[in-house]
Amino acid sequence: MARGTSLIAVAVLASLASTACSAVAGDDRPEPRVTDAAGDPRAGGEGGAPAGAPTDGSGGDGDKSEGKRTSKGPLADMTVVIDPGHNGGNEDAPDEINKLVPAGPSKKECDTVGAESNGGYAEHAFTWDFSQRLADRLEAEGATVVLTRDDDKGVGPCINERAKIGNDAEADAAISIHADGGPASGRGFHLIAPGEVEGFTEDIVEPSRQLAKDVRAAYREGSGLPYADYLAEDGLDERTDLGGLNLSTVPKVFLEAGNMRNPADAKKLADEEWREEAAGAVAEGIARYLQRD
Ligand SMILES: [Zn+2]
Question: What topology is assigned to 8-290 in CATH?
Answer without folding.
Answer: Aminopeptidase (3.40.630)
